[in-house]
Design goal:
The protein is mainly α and 450 residues long. The protein has a single domain (13-435), classed as MFS general substrate transporter like domains (Growth Hormone, Chain: A). Helices cover 77% and strands 0% of the residues. It contains 18 helices and no strands. It is globular, with a radius of gyration of 21 Å. Residues 18-427 form the Major facilitator superfamily (MFS) profile domain.
Length: 450
């Protein structure tokens, strides 16, 4: 019997469907966090928002993600991946529809806060389920592919948002409520998804785990193929103290540096492009074009993540995307074509850091705390993202667009430094090898190609 029957299994229809259904959460996340950028052009004058109120509403979902991601991670490690896999999306449906009737900034802030909590909870749930079912050769591509769907959701949000502006003064209400439609479809698709057999083994539910293994991987699959041991009562603090603290620091820092500039651009894209002298329709449609390029950048990163390796891709992505932001900061009065070219370069080059946000955390931590680790890293990254998004309107008015872009560039360069100092290489490893604190995989670190 091969000890790698699961890790070296071929990609099956089950894996493809699981990837599709799991990608629904990231798609909604990108849609929800992006469409607010278009909606704010109507919300601000109608609700007479101050700069502080604009920042709070723009950051509200990010604050919610901070709260929801850690709670969702803890819950998914305690109660299972499958149980929460659909429940979190129901909250998104209800609160999205409720936004249609929001009449004041506080009501809108609260609704988007709850939506963010539900979105954040889905991060560790869906990614843990994906990581624990996927063969190692395809794990990086399928996990990274979830981020592609984030950007796809963002691209569709900008396009749909621009279309709904034609609905008049209530266009922003239809924009914010529209997330309920894809959320409903995703909930229906996710029904019937099996529980993670790795999690079941940790909880001592070996009979259920083995049945799922045989259903998914064939009748010869057994619990021995998982390489997991029953170990239910694991103290997360003890695991962090035993050496995983450095990994948590690395993941949190690179994730934060990756999302702070990006979420600011998504939440206030038209405003930023307007400050760079791209006015009117060009500012709005320029945001849609850049959003599409973000998607293309993540797709391109998927093609090289197994060839370049995680560490090299992460470092280069930070360096070259940061260089594009640096040039925008140094030359904010450049011609519109140059501004669009630099923003486009940033959008494409940042793709490597984006797909690794869900690859690295799921590979670097063991099954019993994988959900908690992903949730905690996501929560910590959202602190910086929420603060950065909140400060954008004030930074634009106080610092000017040039210095704001220089600050964004500095954050990207900090991510590059952290990557050089701390990023491990997990390409080609089994889930058990990549999660161990020792270095068991020198022989296993062989290029894995698609």
């Amino acid at each position: 019997m091969s000890s790698n029957r699961i890790d070296d299994a071929p990609l099956s229809g089950f894996h493809k469907k699981l990837a599709l259904y799991s990608s629904g959460g990231p798609f909604l996340d990108g849609y929800i966090l992006s469409i607010i950028g278009v909606a704010m052009t109507q919300i601000t004058p109608q609700l007479q928002l101050s700069e502080s109120a604009q920042g709070l509403i723009g950051a509200s979902a990010l604050i919610g993600i901070f709260l929801g991601a850690f709670a969702g991670g803890w819950l998914t490690d305690k109660f299972g991946r499958q149980v929460l896999y659909t429940v979190d999306l129901v909250a998104i449906i209800v609160c999205s529809v409720a936004q249609f009737w929001a009449t004041d900034p506080v009501w809108l802030f609260v609704l988007r806060l709850v939506i963010g909590m539900a979105v954040g909870a889905d991060y560790p749930i869906a990614t843990s389920l994906m990581a624990e079912f996927t063969p190692r050769k395809h794990r990086g591509v399928l996990l990274g592919g979830l981020l592609v769907m984030w950007f796809a959701g963002g691209s569709i949000a900008y396009i749909a948002g621009e279309a709904m502006l034609s609905l008049g003064d209530d266009g922003w209400r239809w924009m914010l409520a529209s997330a309920a439609l894809p959320a409903t479809v995703i909930v229906l698709l996710r029904l019937g998804t099996p529980e993670s057999p790795r999690w079941l083994v940790k909880k001592g539910r070996t009979v259920e785990a083995e049945k799922i293994l045989k259903d998914v991987f064939g009748p010869e699959a057994t619990l021995a193929d998982l390489g997991e041991e029953e170990r239910e009562n694991v103290d997360v603090k003890a695991i962090l103290r035993s050496g995983y603290g450095k990994r948590m620091l690395f993941v949190s820092v690179f994730w934060t540096c990756s999302v702070v500039p990006l979420f600011a651009i998504y939440a206030f894209g038209p405003v930023i492009l307007d400050a760079l002298k791209l006015e009117g329709d060009l500012a709005s449609y320029g945001s849609a074009v850049i959003s599409v390029l973000f998607t293309l950048g993540t797709v391109a990163a998927l093609f090289v993540v197994n060839r370049m390796g995680r560490r090299t891709l992460l470092t280069h992505s930070f360096v070259w995307s940061g260089a594009a932001l640096l040039l925008l900061g140094l030359f904010p009065d450049a011609p519109s074509s140059v501004v669009m070219a630099l923003f486009s370069a940033y959008a494409v080059l940042i793709g490597g850091t984006q797909i690794l946000q869900w690859i690295y955390p799921n590979e670097l931590f063991p099954t019993e705390v994988r959900g908690t680790a992903v949730g905690l890293a996501s929560s910590l990254s959202r602190i910086g993202a929420a603060v950065g998004t909140y400060l954008v309107p004030m930074a634009l008015s106080g610092w000017g667009i040039g210095n704001t872009m220089l600050a964004a560039a500095a954050i990207s360069i900090a991510g590059a430094v952290a990557s050089v100092a701390w990023a491990p290489e997990t390409r080609g490893l089994t889930l058990q090898q990549s999660a161990t604190l020792s270095d068991p995989a020198e022989p296993a670190r062989q290029p894995v190609t698609n």
